[in-house]
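ugh ok so i messed up the first submission bc i forgot one of the chains. this is the corrected input, ALL of the components this time, i swear. 276 residues overall. if the numbers dont match what u have on ur side tell me asap before i send this to the collaborators (the ones from the other lab, u know who)
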Amino acid sequence: MRPSEDELRAALLADAPDRDEAFVAAVTSRLPQGRTVLNWSAWLRRAVLLVALATLAPLAAEAAAALGRAVDATMVAVCLTLVLSSWMAAGAVARTLRR
Amino acid sequence: MDETQLIAAARAGSAEAFAALVRRHQQAVRGFLRRAGGDVAEADDLAQEAFIAAWSRIGAFHGRASLRSWLCAIAWRKLQTARRGAQRTRARERHVAQLEPSTTRLDPASDARLDLEIALAGLEPEQRAALALCLGADFSHAEAAHALGLPLGTVKSHVARGRARLAQALGADHAAE
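and heres the new structure output, hopefully the right one now
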């Protein structure tokens, strides 16, 4: 005999924890103290991105002008790769700092 | 305080308000991870990680989805990342040792639970997750779709097929008794 919908639901809920203050305490004890730390990591990433863009964009434009239009796409690709790499590296640093 | 006020207070940096939110939603998140992942200890660890991540990102929660759905979305990403890491580890260790089943499975006291766990283990990860949310935690299909990052139709199909396979597996077990 197949279980009914209610039986399935009951089985799926069977061992879900109800109130668990120990879990709540475990989470809250691990929260980074102060939101400023967290905001700093976001601002750090933004700053790195802006610096990367400000540095790389003129370089890319210069290089493209010097070498001709044929390399525009390559330069843009290189530029984007560098920007994305910087973004990811900054994210990794921020996550490490947050831990 | 209602949930909106708690969220606003948590966004302003109140750890007490966030603790109240954890208290409200820990059952849904842990239950979801237990059913979707099948390992109690790992589920609870990932639930903690998910709540800590939620604390750091709560400024990005704009209320377009429910909070529990947003929390389960974070938990689901944590579970997927853990699975990818586990797969990489298993691949490295495959030539050294045979894989052993987890020693912290769901409470073996109940045969019915074991049957359920075995039946769930036979489902695709996304089907398990969709079932855990829609049947186990009473999520709407739309909420589950948001939490799992899947199209609504895919979630509906996962739930329908998963429910049928689960009923079939459990029904077969019951019939054999």
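quick check: The domain at 3-176 of chain B is CATH 1.20.140.160 (Butyryl-CoA Dehydrogenase, subunit A; domain 3). that seems consistent at least. Chain B is about 75% helix and 0% strand.
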